[in-house]
């Protein structure tokens, strides 16, 4: 295993320490328990909190800041955070108007956020939870009852974060997040496996001409192990899988072409070119796009595609100023 | 070779097409000859133009936009652009106040930008050129007389771009770029080799426990092939090489910890943590930092460290609004 780390047991802690130092103008990283908050909370605003296993950076800690998340609880690599840091993050994010949890659908995450919500309720903090399950690849998987939550999460965190920033109430935000979850769909393709620091071994083995279609963000099996193909063909297959689930003919959409961690920008733009071409072909309008590595799986190589249908209101929330470590515009 | 591409001969063209589509609100990509300009030029402003071989994205095309570059000429993979696209980019960037070339020190780039400058002069366009040679690893190399230009280029493009945007004249900008070049120093470390699409083979071979210390951004040999070590040790050695060249005790600095293309964010933050700790130890002040993959080498794994000393004026130029595909704040 060749990775830029010291002791694998210190990997998450070291990375968070560097993250805290690099972005001290945006976030604060707390220890015991470990969670990340934006530097300045907005009084009276609903707190938006997320979290989950580490190894998917910049998700979620890189999206803490003005206009997106108020706090995030990162677990160990591919490991759900316990209720303790989630509860601590909740207390800080609660500014009198309650807290919304955005939770990717993995059994551990769902359970631990549920427990934290119960504990928060006992302290008088109103919590609503929306579970994100945007991955069309499989109906159930190793860590999941139902579909997995993957890269579409970023789109939801941005839009819901903007709505919270403009002052929407807890129920309205939960409704918005639910509506977005119903509309966003994703699928991922791995052309190279990640190596988990603790084991030092690749999560799965691919032959030189093999890829995993429908990969999960922890290296979980997808729909099929198939042959490597030109980028346009992979993009087509990914897009078709997403469109099979929700057709987008004539729809206005936001498109995310996401890198899995070890895939350089030029390759992602090759994929995006084809996705855009095909969406035009069915009369869909790409209103906004994101191309980059936003929800990674350690050093996995590959990409995912996420589509979200939008209207004028959602677009204005998307365009609203945001200032986080990984997504920033308008300020 | 497993890459997200179609025909290797179409790789750069496909990636640029996707880039153009994804960032149509910021850039325009011209074909025959191929170059990239910002969407709206500022009348009367000095044009700032860069370019070089592709495969280093987001450098340079991802830094075209308000407050940074006016145009960039991307060559084929690791191949200098010819004078033709550089000249075409120069004509568009020239808004009556002349054009500044920021050129990384590689023989092909230097020659082709020189030829373009001569052709531009014949058309009455005043051009000044500053050659960037921030890599302390080696004094000369395969493609270079003198030191190579590497990731420090981003810091120069940002600061000089901001000075051009505020209205500085051509000579003042050339002086500023020269002063920055004298201050910025970098070194790179590869823990995994890149694969060039045309050959389908890795640029060099590393044993499982080997790294290349002082790697070039085209996979050129560095100072030494040495054993893999913990991240803190690699960070220490890289920082020492940079500080041996210019000590920074008590200096105010901007620090760039740059990913080489296949290295995920968490590993870069592990490196940054140590760099920050060591700089504090010598009484240097990190005024600003950038941690991410800004100057890549296709899918090479590893990092580079760049340091630039700054004062209040340079910091205000750094903080000035910028809106490019890859670097954006304040707007």
In short:
Helix content of chain A is 32%, strand content 25%. The first copy, chain A, has 331 residues and is of the alpha/beta class.
Walkthrough of the structure:
2 copies of one chain form a homodimer. The first copy, chain A, has helices at 11-22, 83-93, 107-122, 152-165, 170-183, 231-245, 265-281, 312-319; strands at residues 27-30, 35-38, 47-54, 65-66, 71-77, 99-104, 127-132, 185-192, 210-213, 224-227, 252-259, 285-292, 301-309, 322-324, 328-329. With 331 residues, the first copy, chain A, is of the alpha/beta class. Chain A has a domain at 10-183: 3-Layer(aba) Sandwich (Rossmann fold). The first copy, chain A, has a 6-stranded mixed sheet, sandwiched between helices. In chain A, strand 1 and strand 2 (35-38) form a beta hairpin. In chain A, helix 2 (83-93) packs across helix 3 (107-122), helix 4 (152-165) packs antiparallel against helix 5 (170-183) and helix 4 packs across helix 8. The longest helix of chain A has 17 residues, at 265-281. The interface between A and B is large, with 61 and 61 residues.
């Amino acid at each position: 295993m060749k990775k830029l780390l010291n002791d694998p047991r210190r990997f998450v802690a070291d990375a968070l320490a560097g993250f805290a130092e690099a972005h001290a103008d945006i976030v604060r990283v707390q220890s015991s328990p470990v969670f990340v908050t934006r530097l300045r909370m907005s009084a009276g605003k609903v707190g938006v909190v997320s979290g989950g296993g580490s190894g998917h950076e910049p998700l979620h800690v890189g999206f803490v800041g003005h206009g997106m998340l108020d706090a995030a609880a990162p677990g160990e690599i591919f490991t759900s955070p316990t209720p303790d840091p989630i509860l601590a993050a909740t207390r800080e994010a609660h500014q009198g108007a309650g807290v919304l949890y955005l939770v990717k659908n993995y059994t551990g995450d769902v359970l631990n956020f549920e427990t934290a919500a119960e504990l928060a309720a006992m302290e008088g903090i109103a919590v609503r939870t929306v579970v994100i399950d945007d991955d069309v690849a499989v109906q159930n998987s190793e860590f999941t009852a139902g579909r997995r939550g993957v890269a579409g999460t970023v789109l939801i965190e941005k839009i819901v974060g903007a709505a919270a920033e403009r002052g929407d109430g807890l129920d309205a935000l939960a409704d918005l997040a639910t509506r977005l979850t119903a509309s966003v769909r994703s699928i991922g393709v791995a052309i190279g496996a990640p190596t988990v620091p603790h084991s030092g071994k690749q999560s799965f083995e691919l032959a030189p001409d093999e890829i995993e279609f429908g990969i999960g963000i922890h290296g979980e099996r997808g729909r099929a192990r198939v042959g490597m193909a030109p980028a346009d063909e992979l993009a087509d297959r990914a897009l078709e899988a997403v469109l099979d689930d929700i057709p987008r003919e004539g729809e206005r959409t936001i498109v995310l072409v996401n890198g899995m961690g070890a895939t350089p920008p030029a390759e992602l733009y090759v994929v995006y070119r084809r996705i855009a071409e095909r969406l035009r072909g069915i009369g869909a309008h790409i209103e906004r796009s994101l191309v980059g590595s936003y929800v990674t799986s350690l050093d996995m190589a590959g990409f995912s595609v996420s589509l979200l249908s939008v209207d004028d209101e959602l677009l204005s929330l998307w365009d609203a100023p945001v200032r986080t470590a990984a997504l920033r515009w308008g300020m």
